[in-house]
Amino acid sequence: MIENATFRHSMPAQIRFSDVDQFGHVNNSVYFSLYDLAKTTYVKDVLSGRMKWNEVGIVVANISANFMSPIFFMDNVNIETTTIELGNKSFTLLQRAIDPETKTVKCECRTVMVVYDLKAQTPMQIPEDYKLAICEYEGRTPEELSKKK
After folding, report:
1. How far apart are CA 70 and CA 106, in angstroms?
2. 71 near 29, Cβ under 8 Å?
3. Quick one: 87 exposed, middle or buried, by C-beta within 10 A (0-12, 13-18, 19+)?
4. pLDDT digit of tens for each residue in the chain (149 aa)?
5. What is the CA radius of gyration of the chain?
6. φ, ψ for residue 92 (rounded to 5)?
7. From 148's CA, which of 21, 30, 67, 83 has a CA 20 to 30 Å away?
8. SS3 27
9. Which is it for the CA torsion 118, 119, 124, 125, positive or negative?
């Protein structure tokens, strides 16, 4: 778990009856749906109006999760998202499912996202205005988010 990450983006998660498995807790596969929704919300909020969705896509290159504590049907959970690395063609998001009252981290997820040229069907450089918007939103400099630390 990354202790020093600052999460400026938070989204309440709605747990559905169908999310709960036979053991009474949210099935592990459901976390990825919650993280996906939060990623979408994060990108919309951070890149507000900059994304040219018919030209540029953002795809998942790698995703992994560490499960610390189960989430049950009646639990309140927020999904928090932050960018922890910003490269030339990719950026890494750290997300966590957290109890908003107790601050107990239930699960943590790391996702490498690649910016993708839809016409050429290939990864592309992250546009500078995207990088600047992410840095501004996160309150960090490009150097602080650089993969070449």
Report:
1. 6
2. no
3. middle
4. 565 789 999 999 999 999 999 989 999 999 999 999 999 999 999 998 877 778 889 999 999 999 999 999 999 999 999 999 999 999 999 999 999 999 999 999 999 999 999 999 999 999 999 999 999 999 999 888 986 65
5. 16
6. -115, 130
7. 67
8. coil
9. negative
Any idea which residue has 């929704």 for tokens? 37
Cα gap 120→111, rounded to integer Å: 23
Please give the Cα distance from 129 to 149 (Å, whole number): 21
Nearest to 125 by CA among 90, 94, 93: 90
Q: Which of 121, 138, 133, 137 is nearest to 55 (CA)?
A: 121
Inter-residue contact 59 to 114 (CB < 8 Å): yes
All residues at 6 or more sequence positions from 119 whose CB lies less than 8 Å from its CB, including other chains:
55
